[in-house]
Design goal:
83% of the residues lie in helices and 0% in strands. It is mostly helical.
């Protein structure tokens, strides 16, 4: 950028003998200074914020959803931070709901297990009673057959 400026300036300013080198050097120095300032601003304003967002994203990807990004900004980075924090809050809420549902499911499974055990004991008791009744029926049948044999 600094190298192009002297050529445009030459169209509008009358050059004096021996000043072109100084003018060219000054323009190059100003261009380098502007470039360095722009790099510094981009690095400080943009890259440091994006690095912090990246660190939090990595923490969340490692199953640590307790992090939030507390930077304040009134630009696009601020919108990204707000959306990112909302996403993390939604994840925390969803995991809380899943945890609650899991607890309820575990309680229901325990109740089902208890009911199944009680039902199994009831079926076993009924089986024992049926076996007892069948044995009694067999004894009664044998007795009836014996009485019938002695009666004839």
């Amino acid at each position: 950028m600094g190298a192009v400026f002297p050529f445009f300036a030459g169209l509008f300013v009358e050059a004096k003998e021996g000043m072109f080198g100084w003018f060219m050097g000054s323009c190059l120095l100003a261009g380098v200074a502007c470039g360095a300032a722009m790099y510094g601003l981009v690095h400080v304003v943009l890259l440091k914020r994006l690095k912090r967002i990246s660190e939090i994203a990595n923490s969340i990807s490692q199953n640590d959803i307790s992090h939030t990004c507390d930077m304040q900004s009134d630009d696009m980075i601020g919108e990204i931070i707000d959306a990112f924090n909302q996403m993390a809050a939604n994840l925390r809420n969803m995991i809380g709901q899943i945890s609650g549902a899991t607890t309820q499911l575990a309680a229901a499974a325990e109740q089902t297990s208890t009911i199944t055990e009680e039902t199994s004991r009831g079926v076993q008791a009924q089986q024992a009673e049926i076996d007892s009744i069948a044995s009694a029926m067999n004894q009664m049948t044998a007795t009836v057959q014996e009485v019938a044999r002695h009666a004839t």
